[in-house]
Structures are given as C-alpha cells and as structure tokens.
Amino acid sequence: MRFDVITLFPELFAPLLSSGITRRAYESGAVDVRFANPRDFAVGNYKRVDDRPFGGGPGMVMMAEPLHACLSQVLSERAVGAPVVLFSPIGKPLTHAVVERMGSGEGAVLLCGRYEGIDQRIIDAHVTEQISLGDFVLSGGEIAAMALLDAVARLQPGVLNTEGSHQQDSFNPALGGLLDCPHYTRPDVWNGLAVPEVLMSGHHGHIERWRREQSLRITAMRRPELLVSARRAGLLSNRDEEFLRTLDSSP
C-alpha cells in the first residue's frame, strides 16, 4: 500500500522510517511512503506557502494554490484513487478500527497542515476524511501522520517478531476491543515484588483466564466505555459478565 505524505517538513519522518521494528514494513515496501512538499509548488522568489487570514486574527494560513498543485500532482501519479486525509482537531478520533481499515486498503494521501490551518477551500475540494489524535492541538499534522503510519506498519505480515502479536494489543477485536492485560518478564522477583503465581504455573487455561480477567478489570477501571461497546457488540461471554459483577467499578 502507498501513503503519500504532504508536508513542509519531510525530514521529520526520517527516524520513523529507519528505526525500530516497523522499519521492516517501509524497507520491504509493504508500506510505501512517499513525500511531497507544497513549497516545491509555490511560485515567486520566496516560495511562499502561507498568508494572513481574511478577517484578521493571529497566525498564518496555508495557501490554497500550492496545496492544490501539490495534491493534484500526487493524485495524478497514483494508479488508483486514494482518500485524502487531513489531520485536524475537528477530525474523528484515530482508533484501531481506522488503523485496520487503512492497513488493509490501498493507502491514502496524508495532508499535514501547519500554522493556524489550511485554506478551507482545499478541504472542501480535496479532503475526504479528517482525523484527530485527541482533544489537544499540535504544531502540525506530522506527528499524527507518523502515529498512523506506525500503527499501520505493525499490522503488516512479517513486521513484528512474533506473527500475530498485534492480536493481543489493546483495542484489538481479538480482545473484544478491551485493554490489554499486564505483562511480566525475568526475574520472577524484583525489589520484593513477585510475578503472579498463575503465570509461573504452566497451566495455559488458567493463564488465559487470568489474562482475560485482568483485561476486563483494567478496562472497567480505566475505560469503562469500552466495556459498554463490547457488550453491545456481543463480545463478552457469560463468564466475562460473571467476573465483571464482582467488580465495584463495572459499568
């Protein structure tokens, strides 16, 4: 799949593409990441890409024409049409479901805004989806684009050391969309704190049930709305419900 990133700062992505486990996805071409800089499509000696907002106010706004020329060039080079994603505070939250959809398709064009934002006419003409990392504001869309690319890359076959490892991640449908359980490694006692005995027992059935109950417990404490969604989707068993009834924090 191909992701075209439209950004004024492509150099920010270098560590993402060359470091860590997920670099395998980029080096192998499983996730093909390309860059286009709107400044390369700007005119004049100063290659200006921003200007003052109409109506006054602080900050600058990215101009429509350089973005339009950049987007048009990128879209013309793609063999098939692609969604154009803008990272914006008004977008829908980036969730595991969005990552799975992006990770199983043909990719997308990721538009990284800067300054106070981009000219609304570009959004109206080109953008098909807006995504937000959360209820806060970043200096630009690059960090959000990196988060999406990293999440998509780790879903690709052969990227993680253990195939299917991502199936145990928080929010994954394999867990019913719940949070992951705690994890432990050697030594079995550290600073007087011992690993739970069940994890040392070798009894896979008991271990699996302990992990499920811990996942249920943590989700009830930290993100109870996920339990509500899982219940509505029929992802909780009768045994899950029995355990939840023992918790004071169950929604």
TrEMBL record:
<comment type="subunit">
    <text>Homodimer.</text>
</comment>
<dbReference type="GO" id="GO:0052906">
    <property type="term" value="F:tRNA (guanine(37)-N1)-methyltransferase activity"/>
</dbReference>
<comment type="similarity">
    <text>Belongs to the RNA methyltransferase TrmD family.</text>
</comment>
<dbReference type="Pfam" id="PF01746">
    <property type="entry name" value="tRNA_m1G_MT"/>
</dbReference>
<feature type="binding site">
    <location>
        <begin position="133"/>
        <end position="138"/>
    </location>
    <ligand>
        <name>S-adenosyl-L-methionine</name>
    </ligand>
</feature>
<keyword id="KW-0489">Methyltransferase</keyword>
<keyword id="KW-0949">S-adenosyl-L-methionine</keyword>
<dbReference type="InterPro" id="IPR029028">
    <property type="entry name" value="Alpha/beta_knot_MTases"/>
</dbReference>
<keyword id="KW-0963">Cytoplasm</keyword>
<feature type="domain" description="tRNA methyltransferase TRMD/TRM10-type">
    <location>
        <begin position="1"/>
        <end position="227"/>
    </location>
</feature>
<comment type="function">
    <text>Specifically methylates guanosine-37 in various tRNAs.</text>
</comment>
<feature type="binding site">
    <location>
        <position position="113"/>
    </location>
    <ligand>
        <name>S-adenosyl-L-methionine</name>
    </ligand>
</feature>
<dbReference type="InterPro" id="IPR002649">
    <property type="entry name" value="tRNA_m1G_MeTrfase_TrmD"/>
</dbReference>
<dbReference type="InterPro" id="IPR016009">
    <property type="entry name" value="tRNA_MeTrfase_TRMD/TRM10"/>
</dbReference>
<keyword id="KW-0808">Transferase</keyword>
<dbReference type="GO" id="GO:0002939">
    <property type="term" value="P:tRNA N1-guanine methylation"/>
</dbReference>
<protein>
    <recommendedName>
        <fullName>tRNA (guanine-N(1)-)-methyltransferase</fullName>
        <ecNumber>2.1.1.228</ecNumber>
    </recommendedName>
</protein>
<dbReference type="InterPro" id="IPR029026">
    <property type="entry name" value="tRNA_m1G_MTases_N"/>
</dbReference>
<dbReference type="GO" id="GO:0005829">
    <property type="term" value="C:cytosol"/>
</dbReference>
<keyword id="KW-0819">tRNA processing</keyword>
<dbReference type="InterPro" id="IPR023148">
    <property type="entry name" value="tRNA_m1G_MeTrfase_C_sf"/>
</dbReference>
